[in-house]
Specification:
Oligomer: single chain
Strand content: 15-25%
CATH topology of the largest domain: BirA Bifunctional Protein, domain 2
Number of helices: 16
Helix content: 25-40%
Number of domains: 2
Radius of gyration: 29 Å
Largest sheet: 8 strands, mixed
Mean pLDDT: 90
Shape: elongated
Structural class: alpha+beta
CATH superfamily of the largest domain: Bira Bifunctional Protein, Domain 2
Length: 421
RNA sequence: GCGGGCGUAGCCAAGUGGUUAAGGCAGCGGAUUGUGAUUCCGCCAUUCGGGGGUUCAAGUCCCCUCGCUCGCCCCA
């Protein structure tokens, strides 16, 4: 029979690995809480139209990477490939925007049907931030600062913040026309991928890794030159804000976000230690999206952080947290003793003590061996004679075992509870 | 979707066409039916990701397929 296994690009997180994930989640929650950013949770499954309208039909994400299917009512459904569209949909649906600007964060799995490689899975996890209703350049600065400081607090080293401005929607439209016109005259000098992008998503040609194409682009009209004076002024304010906060950045005129809804500020935080998928966090401003999805005109900025990539970076760090061992490992043998151990474990736990109870009824030597390996500080033993007398044996486990003598302190049950609780 | 590398037990692996597929870690049982390091003994792959082929003989060679992995594309 064929072995059952998880689907391609969808991985299990085993108990051994989960400590790091919980650490990241707890750290993030603390950061968001202190920045007065509130959590929002939206469904994993949405109407396909949300992403088609929000992200853009021409993008690869919508065009060929979505998990889309018909449900039993013949509705086209899609597992969310990203978080922003859902958050905006929820904000519009529940009228959050009429209650003032919103500072939101989310975390959870996303789904894209791609070929898996380092730092890229079909089910992957993001933590994201969305500021809805903020137009001031300071909101760009604060959004970026929250991401930067979170990564710093997690101990990620050697990050690089790259920054660009895509300008207003009009700036972008004008520039796209100019770029397409210029490149079309030199179409035969472009690599095949870029020729394809010329009609599909021309701005992405700027980001091409093909050397000949990059050489050609040196003479092309630049996005920076195409920005209107107001857009340029705005971008300068964002840069000044980051500088004032001491957050280092590099301008990257070729940085173009892949999703249609971005405008003005675009940024990526990358690490050279991640291989081909170097972006840990990416985001930018999307002033047009809320209106495009049926809401009121609303300025907005957000970012998303890839947890698998973050874990790759943090797993290399020596201080990666490991699971806490129990304080007490409870060993028992004999019918009466086993019942009493069950009860004692519950009492200790209710009093806040972490207890692992051995349920095997194996020889004391076996149980003690497991107690040692569990990492617990103490073993508590209950045998028939202790059970009868309402006593336990308390034995310290750390350090060398005592030679010869069995060791362990015999004391009444109540005293044990008093000592630990 | 395209290209490269790799699949031997839960993990790390030896094996380079010739009898029964090394070894280590982990696990389980015992020496010790009441005491954790260490030690000793025993058990743990009718089969090498799956299928087909070549051969007297295949983990080893060939084809297909699945999976993992790295890169392209894309993106967090």
């Amino acid at each position: 029979m064929e072995k059952l296994q998880s689907l391609r690009g969808m991985v299990d997180l085993l108990p051994e690995q989960i400590g790091l994930w919980q650490h990241i989640e707890a750290t993030s929650r603390g950061h968001f809480q202190r920045a007065a950013i509130r959590e929002i949770r939206t469904p994993l499954l949405e109407a396909t139209e949300l992403f088609a309208r929000g992200i853009g039909e021409a993008t690869d994400v919508v065009g060929k990477e979505m998990y889309t299917f018909l449900d039993r009512g013949e509705r086209s459904c899609t597992l969310r490939p990203e978080g922003t569209a859902s958050v905006v949909r929820a904000a519009i649906q529940h009228g959050l925007l009429s209650q003032g600007a919103q500072r939101l964060w989310y975390a959870g799995p996303m789904f894209r049907y791609e070929r898996p490689q380092a730092g890229r899975l079909r089910q992957f996890h993001q933590i994201g931030l969305e500021f809805l209703g903020f137009a001031d350049p300071r909101s760009d600065v604060e959004a970026i600062a929250v991401a930067w400081d979170l990564l710093a607090a997690l101990g990620v080293q050697q990050l690089r913040l790259e920054l660009n401005s895509l300008g207003s929607a009009e700036d972008r439209t004008h520039y796209r026309e100019a770029l397409v016109a210029w490149l079309s005259e030199r179409r035969d000098q472009l690599d095949p991928d870029s020729q394809d992008r010329l009609t599909r998503n021309p701005l992405r040609i700027l980001d091409s890794k093909n050397e000949a194409t990059q050489a050609l682009l040196a003479g092309a009209p630049t996005l920076a030159d195409a920005l209107a004076p107001e857009s340029r002024e705005r971008f300068a304010l964002v840069q000044a804000g980051l500088t004032a906060l001491g957050i280092p950045f590099q301008l990257n005129p070729r940085l173009v976000r892949g999703l249609d809804y971005y405008s003005h500020t675009a940024f990526e935080i990358t690490s050279s230690q991640l291989g081909a998928q170097a972006t840990v966090c990416g985001g930018g401003r999307y002033d047009g999206l809320v209106e495009q999805l049926g809401g009121p005109p609303t300025a907005a900025i957000g970012w998303a952080l890839g947890l698998e990539r973050l874990v790759l970076l943090l797993a290399q760090a020596p201080e990666a947290p490991i699971a806490e061992p129990p304080q007490i490992y409870l060993v028992s043998r004999g019918e009466q003793a086993e019942t009493q151990a069950l009860l004692l474990a519950r009492q200790l736990r209710n009093a806040g003590v972490a207890v692992e109870l051995d349920l095997t009824a194996a020889a004391f030597a076996k149980q003690l061996k497991r107690a040692d390996r569990s990492g617990a500080a103490w073993a508590v033993l209950i045998g028939d004679s202790e059970a009868e007398q309402g006593q336990v044996i308390l034995k310290p486990l750390r350090g060398e075992p005592p030679a010869g003598d069995n060791g362990g302190e015999r004391l009444p049950l109540l005293e044990l509870l008093a000592r630990f609780a």
